[in-house]
Amino acid sequence: MNANTFRRALVRWSAPLLVLVLVSGCATGPDPSDAEAVAEFKEINDIGEPTNRAIFGFNRFLDKVILKPLASGYRKLPDAVQRSVHNFLNNLRSPVIFFNDILQGKPNRAGTTLARFVINSTIGVVGLGDVADDMGFAFHNEDFGQTLALWGLGDGPYVMLPIFGPSNPRDAIGLVADFFADPLNIWLGNIGYEAAIVARGGLRGVDERARNFDALEDLERSSLDFYAAIRSLYRQRRTDQISDGEGSAILPAPTLGGEEPLFPAPAPGGEVSQMN
Question: Which of 14, 42, 125, 198 is the 20 to 30 A CA-CA neighbour of 28?
């Protein structure tokens, strides 16, 4: 499979995903005469909830049979190994973060991202060590969904995507854009190493699932409605990310999709919280 064929396949694959985002917003709203119900409907903004809940159940099944067992085994590795894998994956994402820093008009954050990439790729041995953090260059994550938000594009209705988890039309577009803008993905596709792109995304999913393992278990046990809890936390987390907040006092949205746009890994709830 050459690079052009791979890209065409991805376009065909991503088109149904975006259609699903739009179709999920076709549910019937409450009786207009019921002001309280209408207000609640608008606040929740989950007009495709029946479909979203069905997809949520599918994601939880995939998590139970695939991702959770892999993450459980991964957690048995030495902490130093897990930390190195996480650092390495964060370093690979640096170009995408840098591009979004620039598009958002944040030169200082772009400089931090560039410095981290150079330092960790050299002194940090291809990113296995986070030497830059010790030097005062803290990690931050950016994606095109956040960029679109800062450009004034609204998020739209809540959507639960198969495998990828919680999203909305804006973030779904950002997901696809980040994939095609990633220089590593472009290079791997051009040399015929498409499987490495999938492997990278899968590894990211396992790593982030392991890092959120206990939080997810606790949340599921304590939630009367796990779906609603994931929905609420996802929105709060995205708001925090878009505003470059220092973090929320509540549990960050525990999502299992990782941060890769191709194959993040099956998840019960969505993207993983940004953790260093």
Answer: 14
